[in-house]
Amino acid sequence: MQIFNKKLLLLGLFNTFLLSACNEMQQSKPATQSVTKYTATSILISGKVENKTGNVEALDDENVIASANVENGRYQLEIPAQTKLPIVLRSDNLISVVIDAEVTNYDINSLTTNIAVKAKLLGGYTRQNMIVAASNSVNTPDANKTSTGFRGDPTSQYGGWH
Fold this sequence. Notes:
The protein is of the alpha+beta class.
């Protein structure tokens, strides 16, 4: 009986080790480098700004490549062709990051600033780092982060159907 208990204990420890190793693999640090991308053509970027007035600057490696005035809480600016991505949009102390030239609507607010700061801490403004930073910046319960829909499984949401 004691041999059986020892085998069971060793099997349990081995399974625990395997599960923790798998968990560590799933939580690996996001990639810090990606292929350098450029805008193929000039693009028009627009969006809302939390600061209702002021100026928006687009920065490529710390150089201002475009700027626009904020009017009625909105901005619109043209990014030249062959501009290196990512592009940082800055309005006062708020920022947003353009990582994809196909997306042209970028709001600039405290949430986009938090996402950008977290992505930078993860190793830079890569798509993977931005995704991780965004998912960690939004206060969504784990039960709602499922692929079954916007709010997860409706049969278990709030204790069942309502």
